[in-house]
Automatic annotation (TrEMBL):
InterPro entries: AAA+_ATPase (IPR003593), ABC_transporter-like_ATP-bd (IPR003439), ABC_Transporter_VariousFunc (IPR051782), P-loop_NTPase (IPR027417)
Transmembrane segments: none
Species, as recorded: Ligaoa zhengdingensis
Residue span(s) of domain ABC transporter: 5-227
Keyword Transport: yes
The name this protein goes by in its record: ABC transporter ATP-binding protein
Higher taxonomy: Bacteria, Bacillati, Bacillota, Clostridia, Eubacteriales
Superkingdom to which the source organism belongs: Bacteria
Gene3D superfamilies (alphabetical): P-loop containing nucleotide triphosphate hydrolases
């Protein structure tokens, strides 16, 4: 089966600064994958390339065997690092915006998850706390029936008690053939839901491994391994 995401000698250079240095990578279907690396290692760049917001300087990135474009936009659901939703919008308006924009948006599922978190249809984005805004956006993005979810720092502002709920209920509550790629610095929080990890450093892939193999073969948590590999 064609992998959901593949990078072949993928490089990205921003006006002389190399962000990705010709990486080769395969991400399979049905996995929750942590994209982990220090600041400036190339995580956001890779996610933007996969979502089609950026184009490679050389090499290629393929979604289900295709270059990012009109066809793959339907298959990919992307949560950017910074919001693109308008502050004046209410929850109800955002739900209808997504529903109009994406034919694979599951409105009843999104409405139910929002209700369970006590977020009301009339609440406006601008009156919400940072963590609540993140919850709303994550629910919207995860409520599309996509093949690949790209989540760039999805829970940085969410309090620790809500993080577990979000990880287990929202992120794990998706179509089991879909893949979720999560970029985060909150490694110990996300570790329980991850199947695989990709360590990235200065534009190079430092490691790709399943979480089970790291635990069994190295006898460590992903968080401990990350601290060891990237110690300053
Ligand atoms: N628009 C840009 N113009 C120039 N350089 C950029 C641009 N965006 C990113 N970079 C550089 O590319 C490199 C990779 O950045 P990127 O944002 O992909 O890293 P990251 O791993 O997501 O970092 P963080 O964990 O801090 O969010 C960094 O050196 C960064 O300074």
């Amino acid at each position: 089966m064609t992998p959901i995401l593949e990078c072949r000698a993928l490089a990205k250079v921003y006006s002389g600064r190399r962000a990705l240095a010709g990486i080769n990578l395969t991400v399979n279907r049905g996995r929750i994958v942590g994209l982990l690396g220090p600041n400036g290692s190339g995580k956001t760049t890779m996610i933007k390339l996969a979502s089609g917001l950026l184009t490679p300087t050389s090499g290629e990135i393929l979604i289900d065997g295709k270059r990012p474009g009109v066809q793959t936009k339907r298959q990919v659901s992307y949560l950017p690092e910074r919001t693109y939703l308008e502050n004046w919008m209410t929850v109800d308006e955002m739900l209808h915006f997504f529903s109009d924009f994406y034919d694979n948006f599951n409105l009843p599922k999104a409405a139910e998850m929002l209700q369970r978190l006590g977020i009301q249809p009339g609440d406006r984005l601008k009156t919400m706390s940072k963590g609540t805004k993140e919850k709303v956006q994550l629910i919207l993005v995860m409520s599309r029936e996509a093949d690949l979810y790209l989540l760039d720092e999805p829970i940085g502002g969410v309090d620790p008690a809500a993080r577990d709920y979000i990880l287990h209920t929202i992120i794990s509550n998706y179509n089991e053939n879909a893949t979720v790629l999560i970029s985060t610095h909150l490694i110990s929080d996300v570790e329980p839901v991850l199947d695989d990890v990709i360590f990235i450093n200065q534009g190079y892939i430092a490691l790709t491994e399943s979480v089970d193999d790291i635990r069994e073969q190295q006898g460590k948590s992903v968080d401990a391994l990350f601290r060891e590999v990237f110690r300053c």
